[in-house]
Amino acid sequence: MTNTRAQILLAASALLFLPAALAADTEKERLVDARPDGTVSISNVAGSVTVTGWDRNEVEVKASLGSGVEELQVESRGRTVEIEVELVRRSHGRNGNADLEIRVPIGSDLDIDVVSAEVEIGGVEGELTVESVSGSIDIEGSAKLVGAESVSGSIDVDGDVASVTAESVSGSIVLEGAIREVEADSVSGRIEIKTDEIGAAELETVSGGIEISGSLASRAEIEADSHSGTIVLQLPSSTSARFEVTTYSGRIDNELGPPAERTGRYTPGKELEFTAGSGDARVKIATFSGSVALKAQ
After folding, report:
1. Would residue 202 count as lying in a domain?
2. Per residue in 228-286, pLDDT tens?
3. Structural domain tally of the chain?
4. Which of 15, 64, 181, 208 could hold 163 in an S-S bridge, CB 3.0 to 4.6 Å?
5. Is 147 part of any domain?
6. Rounded distance, CA 230 to CA 234, Å?
7. Residue 68 is part of which domain span?
8. Cα separations (Å) of 46 from 66, 103, 111?
């Protein structure tokens, strides 16, 4: 083969691979003005969304867009900045992933809606609302309120938060830090709360386990219900609370007070009612077949 012919074939090969090169991820950047206490709305289908708070009254978006993405829309409208990833219609399996790195004013409220994108939030102090189908949700920092929903993705919150509402179907819910009020529901995913002091909690699962470890505020109200999941409370031996625990066929183990009693001579149910200390807080637990354990830290 002559050198000229080889060069022609090489050039032809490069042209064949040109569409694939053009289909590679596209990098884009946007910067818009924002209110220090405004709302940032984010919509993405797949990929990732990472949001970080900063001390500037601007929203910065850095994006890596797949070939199935038609456009990245970033618009400022009054108190709201809207960020939306628009996919190509009838993309026929093309890469619709978009990886977004976003900086927002610290005091912003966030409204995030994704399908399979992973969401990470840090250092944002407003009200945070996140909805996902299969992507995980990870939140750190001192937010006013957190509302998180996911079908199969996990939900993790770690920080100083006044109130958290979390819902999942099969994804786990893990809450850590100084979280004072919690409402969490899951079907088969586990719910785990690890906090220095908790003031109120309403927890419910079907088959997922529930675990709470930490101390109770003086007038705390804790309610935990599960059909077949195990419920475990790890509390200081000095806990002051009134306990009411019932189960139809599960087991009850108690390290904080007396043993459980059977509800009837011919039924498998068990119940446990006792007061530890002066009974400042209130704890109510119920299961159908799941076991219950009250453990002393």
Report:
1. no
2. 999 999 999 999 999 999 999 999 999 999 999 888 776 778 999 999 999 999 999 99
3. 1
4. 181
5. no
6. 13
7. 25-124
8. 10, 19, 16
